[in-house]
């Protein structure tokens, strides 16, 4: 895996029954322990200035697709630091060939962090402090679809 949270490998359009129905990209969790899915707080995705809400995305972790709503109550599935998640976005026709600017945020809770520090975490806003161990990540990357 790459050091960047948004991985360059795996950025592509999705084809179903010969038709392009969306696109996908991969992210890794930059936390040394990994997390359970109920700890994850997905944010929005911006691609070339167009916003996709978390409800428009499906997360594939450990080979299974889940919505943001489904992950809230999943206390058994663990997202390991060694496994990237595949984020799938529905978009008729997918993305055009060429470079695209992605901005994607997510955060997660940690049992050893004070609740007051986690209560106002917004995965779509830059935090007042940038410390990955506090579970907040907004990431940008320019990627190429060929």
Overview of the molecule:
It is a single chain. It contains 2 helices and 11 strands, in the order E-E-E-E-E-E-E-H-E-E-E-H-E. It has 146 residues and is mainly beta. It has one domain. The strands form 3 sheets. A 5-stranded antiparallel sheet has the order 1-2-9-6-7.
What is the strand and helix layout of this fold?
Layout lengths: L5 E11 L2 E9 L7 E2 L3 E8 L2 E3 L4 E5 L2 E3 L1 H5 L5 E2 L5 E6 L7 E11 L6 H4 L17 E10 L1
Antiparallel strand pairs: 1-2, 2-9, 3-8, 4-5, 4-10, 6-7, 6-9, 10-11
Short description:
The chain contains two helices and eleven strands.
The shape, in one word, is globular
Helix/sheet category:
mainly beta
Order of helices and strands: EEEEEEEHEEEHE
Total helices: the number is 2
In spatial order, strands of the major sheet run 1-2-9-6-7
Overall number of strands: 11
Question: Whole-number average pLDDT?
Answer: 88
Q: Which segments are poorly predicted (pLDDT under 50) over 5 or more consecutive residues? A: none
Strand content: over 45%
Name the quaternary structure. Answer: single chain
Q: Rg to the nearest angstrom? A: 15 Å
The separation of the N and C termini measures: 21 Å
> How many domains, in number, for the residues?
1
What proportion of the residues is helical, as a percent range?
under 10%
- Give a short account of the largest sheet: 5 strands, antiparallel
